[in-house]
Amino acid sequence: MDRLTNTDAPPSPSRRWPGRSGPLTWIALICALAVLAAALWDRRREPVSDRTVGEVTRVGVVDGDSIPDYQRAAAAGLAALPTPATPGPGDYALVSFAAYLTPGRLADTLGATPVAAVVARVPLPGRQTEIVRIAAMRLPDDVLGGMAEVAARKDREAADYRARAAAPPAAADAELRRVYDTGASVSAREAAAYRAGCACVYAAVVRGTPEALRALATRPDVRVVDAAPQVRRLDRTVFTPPLPEQRDVVRPPADLELADPSAPGLGDSSEAAPTAPGSAPSPGRSVTGAAPPNPAPTS
After folding, report:
1. Taking the CA atoms of the chain, what radius of gyration do you get in angstroms?
2. Measured between alpha carbons, how far is 246 from 88 in angstroms, rounded to an integer?
3. How far is the C-alpha of 299 from the C-alpha of 291, rounded, in Å?
4. Tens of each residue's pLDDT in the chain, 299 residues
5. Per DSSP, what are the bridge partners of residue 59?
6. What is the C-alpha to C-alpha distance for residues 199 and 106, in angstroms, rounded to an integer?
7. Are 164 and 184 spatial neighbours (Cβ–Cβ below 8 Å)?
8. Structural domain boundaries of the chain?
9. In the beta sheet, which residues pair with residue 95?
10. Is the Cβ–Cβ distance between 188 and 282 less than 8 Å?
11. Residue 90 — left, alpha, or beta (φ > 0 → left; ψ -120 to 50 → alpha)?
């Protein structure tokens, strides 16, 4: 009788545990899978890293290059440019001019060729002037607008140079004051030239089919068409065209007065740029620079 009575007792804990562990295990597994799925979804939404960061394509010349060799190599590359199987916008190319062009003359020279940017500098005799890149798609309007922006910046630079020349320690240092004075003079002349729409453009970045680029190479004022089919992104490309006055070897323009103000003239490094009436006639100097292309109007 006692054994029959014991059969009514509740089951031991060891018997109940397996029955409850099954649902809990499945619930834990489902939660883990949900967390894993959410993590994978977040990774899919993350932007893919740009593998081209740090890679820069260079088109043009560098100091010490032979200009005739560069012209021959560019002509050979342009002639060998294959015709694409399907129509498209074509390849980028760096177009160097035989002279410094005004915005209006630039538009006549390039015609309907699509343009991305132009390269300009004020060719003051015996002076190193800043190289600027101006984003331009509509000629000549975008170039004139970019020149106006550069002129405003040059006005600010000239004012800054004058302020530095009048303040310590330049006020008591004749050599340092001369550097600031010449910088202010050239910045003012650059501002006047750009504001007047000077003949300062000496290269352009264009895009076209092989046939269009080869036809462009035969136009007046066009010196070199350096096709660059390897260029995919303009903001990852540095364009360094030769200056019009460079005929044998690439070298920076000499800054004659800053090197030795008492030395006689050794010849102009570039032809004079037309400037607005009343611009400062005294020679000066500004820093020469060329930065990687970007979407901003100037660099």
Report:
1. 33
2. 35
3. 6
4. 444 445 455 555 444 545 555 666 767 777 777 767 766 655 555 444 445 556 789 999 999 999 999 999 999 999 999 988 777 788 999 999 999 999 999 999 999 999 999 999 999 988 889 999 999 999 999 999 999 999 999 999 999 999 999 888 877 888 888 899 999 999 999 999 999 999 999 999 999 999 999 999 999 999 999 999 999 899 999 999 999 999 999 988 777 766 554 443 333 333 333 333 333 333 333 333 333 333 333 44
5. 239
6. 9
7. no
8. 66-259
9. 204, 225
10. no
11. left
Which two tokens mark 144? Answer: 């004139």
296 token code pair:
């901003």
User: CA-to-CA distance for 96 and 176, rounded, in angstroms?
Assistant: 37
Per the structure block, which two tokens stand in for 235?
A: 């903001």
Q: Using H for helix, E for strand and C for coil, what is the string for the chain? A: CHHHHHCCCCCCHHHHHHHHHHHHHHHHHHHHHHHHHHHHHHHHHCCCCCCCCCCCEEEECCCCCEHHHHHHHHHHHHHCCCCCCCCCCCEEEEEEEEEEECHHHHHHHHCCCCEEEEEECCCCCCCCCCCEEEECCCCCHHHHHHHHHHHHHHHHHHHHHHHHHHCCCHHHCHHHHHHHHHHHHHHHHHHHHHHCCCCCEEEEEEEECHHHHHHHCCCCCEEEEEEECCCCCHHHEEEECCCCCCCCECCCCCCHHHHCCCCCCCCCCCCCCCCCCCCCCCCCCCCCCCCCCCCCCCC
Under 8 Å between Cβ of 293 and 92 = no
